[in-house]
Amino acid sequence: MTSAAYSPVALITGAARRIGATICETLHSEGFNVVVHCRHSTAAAEALEQKLNQRRPQSVRILQADLDDHAQIQQLALAAVATWGRLDALVNNASSFFPTPLETATPEQWDNLINSNLRAPFFLSRELHKELRRNRGCIINISDIFGMRPMPGYSIYSIAKAGNIMLTQSLALELAPEVRVNGVAPGAILWPEDISGSEVVNPEKLQQIPLGTLGGTQAIANTVLFLIKNAPYITGQIIPVDGGRSLKQ
What amino acid positions are annotated as catalytic residues? Predict the structure, then answer.
């Protein structure tokens, strides 16, 4: 058995790119073995796996799953624990994000946004809570400041993230004292991407942020790391990481 088997283990959903990938790298640099979940971004996941395994062999594994499919959620949970025989942290990062104006919103859009932002984190937490209890682990849900105050034209997304916040608070009560459950609510962290994957830059948005800049993915990853490793008496809390954006009307 290699020394990697004795490292704490984290499962990060939606981990191949952007915020999820930075969370993976940050936890890995702190000694965690990392289970990288992806759905479609297999090439990016494989590149991340290769880079991190070069730093510490056999410390990263990719698991592919469609979180809209309950059977695949169950399989993901079993495989994540089986990889190194334990799980210490679950980071529910996977998320869909797109506008849904009331006049044009569809049931399919509702299902997509609710499933990725609320249903999947709930049921993945359910599947893993016994293992997390055994290791006195933690769950981190990536929410959004627009779960606290709605974003115009994004009603379903805002509803889903509001539910994600209540999920965090509810599970914090239900899983205490063995498991801590907290949330991180990003504001403007990265420019959004268009359908081709190119960033859509909008400098006017920076005027809405008191600190005047985008936060960058490391700001979220650092907060996740803090909640996992350095916050033993914090549970049921949502930490906005938004440069002060949520202070403005």
Answer: 157
